[in-house]
TrEMBL record:
Family: Belongs to the SIMIBI class G3E GTPase family. ZNG1 subfamily.
Keyword line: Chaperone, Hydrolase, Nucleotide-binding
Any Pfam family: cobW
Protein name: CobW C-terminal domain-containing protein
InterPro entries listed in its UniProt record: CobW-likC_sf, CobW-like_C, CobW/HypB/UreG_nucleotide-bd, P-loop_NTPase, Zinc-reg_GTPase_activator
Keyword Nucleotide-binding: yes
Residue stretches making up the CobW C-terminal domain: 253-342
Domain of life: Bacteria
Protein species of origin: Paenibacillus borealis
PANTHER family: COBW DOMAIN-CONTAINING PROTEIN (PTHR13748:SF62), COBW-RELATED (PTHR13748)
SMART domains tied to this protein: CobW_C
Catalytic activity: GTP + H2O = GDP + phosphate + H(+)
Presence of the UniProt keyword Endoplasmic reticulum in the record: no
Length: 343
């Protein structure tokens, strides 16, 4: 019996981990044993920690690069490690700059095609920022192409963060999406809230499994899924095609991880860190990490996405850090400015 795989793709900060948390909670409520492969561009595993803290799920982490290109060779090891734990399904959360079609192709390779079946590819879009992507990233042609492939390769497109835009923007997004994907269902959400039942339909616990997982046509937020990919994933090539080195899915996005000085009073003020994020203008695409605020004992999880910062308490036990992900980020300049904050 093949294990169903759900790929979560979408640009940085679009809401993939938010959706994955819901999917994991729902899977567990159904008595399923989910496995997760979490890929992060940065060297630290912010999202994997969040998942473990909130759902207790064991996560295979692939850090410091993209599993569709620079870290492609590491995917089999992670999948094998998960398979050894006998999951009922596998979620693969990609980095924001990954091409989901490359992962779909990997699942077709002989070592996995007997054991894994692509169940869904879901792409999340950030409603507040997605219309600007083409002009903003025009210098990184690979990235523009990857963002299109995230749309064209999806079975379900979730236009998330719709609370942050006017209805007209949602119509414009729908029109833009239809240029690259004419068929798949589009849903508009905030905090990635969808009826996840159709995504999980047909997935049963190993112990009670009697038939292969089937896709369902039940409604996601009131509308029926239009495309059921019963066959090969989009863009999938023949299994026996000679394996080519994957082209990078981006060229000018980089991640830098910065830590805090270890002195007792070395915390940072909230406004100070938010000001630091904004200092980098459009070149800082995403930041996330666990931070100790000055004068506070508790650690905070900070998220900076789409030029908005949010904070929540964290139980992260390690040394505080922040991962910065940006376009043309100058690591040396970033590090120097960071050190100056504590000078
Ligand atoms: N206002 C608003 N914020 C949201 C929504 N969905 C998610 N967020 C917030 O946006 C931030 C990024 O969400 P994530 O789910 O981590 O996004 P992601 O796609 O996993 O991000 P990366 O892993 O960096 O690619 C978090 O602070 C979320 O709480 C939404 O619909 N509206």
């Amino acid at each position: 019996m093949k294990i169903p795989v759900i790929i979560l793709s979408g640009f940085l900060g679009s809401g993939k981990t938010t959706l994955l948390l819901t999917l994991l909670k729902e899977s567990k409520a159904r008595g399923l044993n989910p496995g997760v492969v979490m890929n992060e561009l940065g060297k630290r595993d912010v999202d994997g920690y969040i998942l473990q803290e909130h759902t207790g799920t064991s996560v295979e982490k692939l850090l410091d690069g993209c599993v569709c290109c620079s870290r492609k060779d590491e995917l089999p090891g992670s999948l094998n490690a998960l398979l050894a734990r006998r999951p009922d399904m596998i979620f693969i959360e990609l980095t924001g700059v990954a091409d989901p079609e490359e992962i779909a192709k990997s699942l077709l390779e002989p070592s996995f095609s007997e054991r894994l079946a692509l169940h869904y590819t879901v792409t999340l879009l950030d409603a507040e920022n997605m219309l600007e992507y083409n002009s903003r990233f025009s210098a990184d042609k690979q990235l523009v192409r990857t963002l299109r492939k995230q749309i064209s390769g999806a079975d379900l497109i979730i236009v998330n963060k719709s609370d942050l835009v006017e209805p007209e923007t949602l119509w414009k997004i729908e029109k833009a999406v239809r240029k690259y994907n004419a068929e798949s269902e589009i849903v508009f959400t905030h905090y990635s809230e969808i009826n996840v039942a159709p995504l999980l339909a047909g997935i049963t616990a190993r112990t009670s499994r009697t038939a292969a997982a089937q896709r369902s046509s039940r409604s996601i937020n009131g509308s029926v899924l239009k495309r059921m990919n019963a066959g090969q994933p989009h863009g999938a090539t023949a299994v026996h095609e000679p394996r080519l080195e994957a082209e990078p899915s981006y060229s000018q996005v980089a991640a830098v991880t910065l830590t805090f000085p270890q002195a007792e009073d070395s915390g940072i003020y909230r406004e100070q860190l938010e000001g630091f994020f904004r200092e980098w203008g459009g070149s800082l695409l995403r930041a996330k990490g666990h931070v100790r605020l000055r004068g506070q004992a508790e650690v905070q999880l900070v998220q900076f996405a789409g030029n908005r910062a949010s904070w929540e308490p964290s139980r992260y036990p390690g040394l505080p850090y922040v991962v910065f992900i940006g376009l043309h980020l100058d690591e040396q300049q970033l590090t120097e400015r960071w050190s100056a904050l504590f000078g």
